[in-house]
Amino acid sequence: MSETTSTREKKPPLNGRRALPPNNSNDEENEVPELDPFGLIPRGFNPKDYLRVVDIYMFKEPHEINKQQHHTDKYYNPKLIVRRGQPFQISIDFNRPYRPETDQFWLEFLMGRYPQQNKGTYIPIIVGNVLKPGEWGAKITHRENNSIRLSIMSSATCIIGKFRLYVAVWTPFAILRTRRNPATDTYILFNPWCQQDAVYLDDEKEREEYVLNDVGIVFHGNVEDVKSRSWSYGQFEENILDACLFLMDKAELELSGRGNPIKICRVASAVINSRDDNGVIAGSWNNSYDYGVAPSAWTGSVDILLEYYSSKQPVRYGQCWVFAGVFNTFLRCLGIPARLITNYSSAHDNNANLRLDFFLDDEGKVDTRLTKDSVWNYHCWNEAWMTRPDLPVGFGGWQVVDGTPQETSDGMYRCGPASVQAIKHGHVCFQFDAPFVYAEVNSDIIFSRMEKNGTQVIEKIDTTHIGQLIVTKEVGGDGMVEITEEYKFREGSDEERLALETAVMYGVKKQTTRDTIYQPQSDIDMDFQVQKAVLGNDFKVTITFRNRSRNSYTATTYLSGNIVFYTGVPKSEFKKHSFSAKLEPSSSSSFDVVIKSTEYMSDLLEQASFHFFVTARINETGKILAMQKATILEIPTLRIKTKGELVAGKEMSVIVEFTNPLKQTLENVMLRLEGPGVLRTIKKEFRSIPMNSTLTWEIKCIPMRPGLRKLIASLNCDALRHVYGELNVEIQKP
User: Are 726 and 710 in contact (CB under 8 A)?
Assistant: First the structure.
């Protein structure tokens, strides 16, 4: 009785809709019998009389043929890792020489708890004489004594993940299998080197950058003042591959769908953020990071992914570049070419109508109650490279994917993959989320004011501010390359007009300005410049008017300085200044407004980001001129240097130095340092750093891998964030 009940308990509950439960965990396994009889086994049957597998050798060391040929030698993982659609080698030792005339054996690759041949989770491979490119098969390349060498070809469309390998031998009465051996587990990844793979990339330099480079650059700051910092992707570090496969289990992506990069990108863009599925990173944009790490303190993806893999709980906290950095690690780790993109002056348009509405009150000040849209100083997302067989020809190549939770798509916080080519040409009807990305790079900013009688008066339309600079890291270097042209045609060109009309035809809402009055003051130009300044210093804003008419005018001018999050959302107004400007005919005049450090230091947010609105009412005509600009302060950097010989396997020292530039003591300062292949992330807290004093931190480490490596450090405390330093080091071979 007990025998039957225990087997009954193991069975999954019946489900009228499907014969088998969902197979969506790469981690779970089924039991595979070592002896699989065809019926009754006769008494005299002895398995030892037949061909038997003694040992399987996988050639899985980094220096051996498989990992070398498959570009997987950098993975810090003892098991075999190969890329699909390309042959790999194994050898099998039998208990006696193999006789092809009478002996029959085959290989079995299995994945998940319910392997099925038609789902691609059970793959039997018969040994033949020839390998067909891009299809499963095996052939014997060498026979010697009791062992044979096999070349195995995987399908160029097979599932990505970890397979279990068995060797099965046929006997007249039963199938004999090797017992479960984790040492022969084989990871199969995407293959950008294989022409039949959906992620094939034909340029070797680009493959080295977008698949094999484990550090990158995040561009931040704003259009007027582009800043950069390094980010350690660390896709080859220990346990990262398993952590990335776990993300697909977490997202409950059916194993049978895991050969498709489109599906993988879509579910990953949801699971990278913690909204609605308890995904990897919890976002926080409110400047308080209790019980977590400030987004600016992270130096790379490894700590985040490993913490999530072990705790299964969202890691706190991230903002757009953190989501994008971790997403990039995930994509490159699985073999999908990927890069991190920064869009400067990125529109977050709440009602997707291709316009950001800034409402002014009677004095010309921005009305924060009514204004819901915001302009992010910058926004980071990713591009992944793949074919799009689900779209018409011509929309493959780079696809936008975004893990930052901004708006829902099909009921979840996710975005993409959206074809960059489709966005450029306005073909926003093609899945997924193209209208949202189109608005991020193409919206207009409209300043308007309500008259007492309820009519809306448009004071200014700015068509060029949004998405004016889109950049990524250059291939093979740390420089910046502009890719704005890949997203949009030149401002004001016929093609741009056509792309907009196409987008509107396909349902992007573009409100006309016909029902509103728009008669700007055309004979006066206003501009303003913000002086570059270091955090903690005073600086000035210079407002310039150019009166092109023959009339004299007076302008009541109003400057509002706001401390903003990098998302453009204001935290507080720290400066109000108004003055009357006399504008002589046919001449220019400038006016300076001084901003003192005491006015902004107490409220400063971590990216030291300001947003200035300048509005001027021309008293003679009642017209309003309006302009807005974001600016950031220079933040001091960390200095990194090394001491001792830089040789793999030998001890060396890394020294991090920082001088406090502020007119106050910094408290509870957290330093982080990491460098893929040189040292794991190290953290240290310093209680206080008095003003003008210098902190020195020395760490000893033993670099493991030779070659050009990067050390990345960050400093973080409540009064000062986004302090970085980096150093390229060349580690010699021993």
Answer: yes
pTM score, whole prediction: 0.90
13 CB neighbour count, 10 Å cutoff: 5
Report the binding-site residues for Ca(2+).
Answer: 442, 444, 491, 496
As annotated, the residues of the chain forming the CATH 3.90.260.10 domain(s) are 214-506
Catalytic residue among 70, 71, 348, 379: 379
Classify 175 as helix, strand or coil: strand
For residue 348, indicate whether it is catalytic: no
> Quick count: other Cβ atoms within 10 Å of Cβ 560?
20
Q: How far apart are CA 656 and CA 676, in angstroms?
A: 17
Residue 589's H or E segment, with its range, is: strand 587-595
Report the distance separating Cα 80 and Cα 188, nearest Å: 9
According to DSSP, residue 212 is labeled I
Known catalytic residue at 402: yes
Bond from prior residue into 190 cis (ω within 30 degrees of 0): no
Superfamily, domain 35-189: Immunoglobulins (2.60.40.10)
* 194, 244, 320, 333: the active-site residue: 320
| Closest to 285 measured CA to CA, from 205, 233, 348, 333 | 348
Mind listing the pLDDT tens digit for each residue in 487-522?
A: 999 888 888 888 888 888 887 776 665 556 677 778
How distant is the alpha carbon of residue 683 from its chain centre? 24
Would you say 729 and 693 are in contact if contact means Cβ atoms under 8 Å apart? no
Is 379 labeled as catalytic in the residue annotation? yes
For 429-456, the DSSP string reads TSTTTHHHHHHHHHPEEEEEEE-TTS-E
- Of the chain, the end-to-end C-alpha distance in Å amounts to 66
Backbone angles phi, psi at 324, to 5 degrees: -70, -35
Evaluate whether 630 touches 564 at the Cβ level (below 8 Å).
yes
- Closest C-alpha to 592, from 672, 548, 657, 538: 538
List every span in the chain annotated with CATH 2.60.40.10.
Answer: 35-189, 524-632, 639-731
Q: For the domain 524-632, what is the CATH code?
A: 2.60.40.10
pLDDT digits (tens, 9 = 90+) for 402-458: 999 888 777 778 888 999 999 999 998 888 988 889 989 998 888 888 777 878 888
Selected from 2.60.40.10, 3.40.630.30, 1.20.950.20, 3.40.50.80, the CATH number assigned to the domain covering 639-731 reads 2.60.40.10
Q: Looking at 402, 415, 427, 722, which residue is catalytic? A: 402
The fourth-level CATH superfamily of domain 214-506 is: Transglutaminase-like (3.90.260.10)
Peptide bond into 553 cis (omega under 30): no
DSSP 525-552: EEEEEE---BTTS-EEEEEEEEE-SSS-
With beta carbons less than 8 A apart as the criterion, state whether 540 and 479 touch.
no
